[in-house]
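Pasting as-is:
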Amino acid sequence: MFRPTDLFDLTQTEHAALFDGCEFAWDALKRLKDHLLRHLRPGLRNRCEGVAWIGEQVSIGEGTVVEDGAMIQGPAIIGRNCRIRHNAYIRDNVIVGDDCVVGNACELKTAVLFNGAQVPHFNYVGDSILGYKAHLGAGVKISNLKVVAGNVTVEVDGKPFDTGLRKFGALVGDHAEVGCNAVLNPGSIVGRGALIYPNVSWRGILPANMIAKNRASVEVVTKRPRESA
């Protein structure tokens, strides 16, 4: 499930060429900077609500709204009919498809969002790819750097496989859902239609249409009035 077509509908991005010849979907991240240099045609066809800071190497499509306080550093290509909300921070080497949401206090860096992907509230997405209509709940963080030295690895045929990337967050497949305040650790692969429950710290590979649950127990006790001081 590591090939681009295992995770993503390549008709749902105008940048399918980014994945040409990639044996592993994460290899597209290695090409992202050069792809942007070749294909970026700066131009702002969006509408701003308030004051946003937008760099020179940025292209934004028609119908997209950029709200007050957003900062788009670039290089970046942002598609049509997106919503870039208040205080969003889009750093270097980012592609955002059509009909996407990048929400309040969200940060994107070295990232690809397919059409319809939503990163709506207090999210960090670094060195990652989100598929068609993938959705992150509020507070989801995608960790892209190991706390120990070395490249990020992914388990392939039961053995750790070096991705060749020092920074690599996650591949989140089409229609996958990640619940509020979950953390995706470096090298996470989330299959099409998979679901990760809120507050889960996920590591590794979640196959398509599977659910990762947090089984932490919750104690329920009788509510008693407190004694007055």
